[in-house]
Write a structure and sequence with these properties.
51% of the residues lie in helices and 15% in strands. The strands form 2 sheets. Strands 5, 6, 7, 8, 9 and 10 form a 6-stranded mixed beta sheet that branches. It has a 4-stranded antiparallel beta sheet with strand order 1-3-2-4. It has 3 domains: 60 residues, no CATH class; 140 residues, Reverse transcriptase/Diguanylate cyclase domain (Alpha-Beta Plaits, 2-Layer Sandwich); 84 residues, PucR C-terminal helix-turn-helix domain (Arc Repressor Mutant, subunit A, Orthogonal Bundle). Helix 9 packs across helix 12. The chain starts with a helix and ends with a helix. The protein is α+β, with helices and mostly antiparallel strands and 299 residues long.
Length: 299
């Protein structure tokens, strides 16, 4: 496949050693993390959509001027992207929390300072102008999804910038951390490509999104005639059912999240059941309807 890629991009190059600092005009890829062959494609020749596709098909080697990195941050960067030694830590488990700012223009120094203020105990590594990750060592008290949600809301209200997180899983300090990071990065990238309103992603949150996005055509056809027609006619109904299911079918909690009276929520639920004939009283049905909600949101 690499030969076909090189033929498609005639200005691309290959080499058997890591790219030097003066090769920053290229996007660099490897077929797998442990391959010794690197191939670079000029940035000017690669569109955004092509870059995203190649990043899924191959191992994309992040490039950024790392001259400002030192200490633990530089050690982690070397380990993850240049096959360096495993960094020393005070814990036997770490996890990566990725972040993505959704803007083309921002005050990098101001945003970076704010990010350090929220995460003073974590290592912060920027890989691109708007994307990076935290290295969090496992302690008695760890970051929670609710805390990340609150931080995201603060950035949106104070800087008018949307911020998304992917909260990875804690893993043992082994060489496999490279693979875990690569997999989680790919999951975060795929989540960003779908039209969801989430600010904080986890594997558990992304899993149903990916299932909905790869649903077989025959299942989509059944959903079209059973559930999706009701959502197409009434988008408010879609958000109501989705929030209800995300609230573990707790009507009081769902009504609170939707800022409506519980009677209003019940009216909408009855309306959905009347239109579709679907009763949201058992787990299997709830899973089916929730996947339908996600699929309809991404269309």
């Amino acid at each position: 496949m690499i030969n076909k890629i090189l033929a498609y991009f005639p200005n691309s190059v290959t080499q058997d050693f890591p790219p030097a600092d003066d090769s920053s005009n290229y996007y660099w890829f490897k077929e797998t993390l442990h391959d010794t062959l690197w191939f670079g494609i000029p940035k000017a020749d690669l569109s955004v959509s092509q870059h995203e596709l190649l990043s899924i098909l191959f191992h994309f080697v992040e490039e950024k001027n790392t001259s400002g990195l030192s200490g633990a941050a530089r050690n982690w960067h070397q380990f993850l992207f240049h096959e360096g030694n495993l960094p020393l830590t005070n814990s036997d488990e770490v996890r990566f929390i990725q972040f993505q700012f959704h803007t083309k223009e921002m005050d990098y120094e101001e945003i970076s300072e704010a990010l350090h203020g929220f995460f003073p105990d974590h290592i912060i590594i920027w890989l691109q102008d708007s994307y990076g990750f935290l290295v969090e060592e496992k302690k008695e008290v760890s970051e929670t999804a609710d805390e990340l949600e609150s931080i995201s809301s603060t950035f949106e209200s104070d800087f008018f910038i949307k911020l998304s997180f992917y909260m990875g899983k804690f893993n043992k300090l082994t060489g496999q951390l490279r693979e875990f990071f690569t997999i989680e990065k790919q999951l975060f990238t795929q989540a960003m490509n779908h039209n969801t309103r989430a600010h904080v992603y986890t594997f558990e949150k992304i899993f149903p999104i990916l299932l909905a996005s790869t649903m077989p055509a025959e299942l989509k056809a059944i959903l079209e005639t059973s559930v999706l027609e009701a959502f197409e006619e009434d988008r408010e109904l879609l958000s109501t059912i989705k929030v209800f299911l995300e609230s573990n079918s707790n009507a009081s909690l769902a009504a609170k999240k939707l800022y409506v009276h519980r009677n209003t929520l019940q009216y909408r639920m009855d309306k959905f059941m009347e239109k579709t004939g679907v009763q949201l009283k058992d787990f299997d049905t709830a899973v089916m309807v929730y996947l339908a909600c996600l699929y309809e949101e991404m269309r």
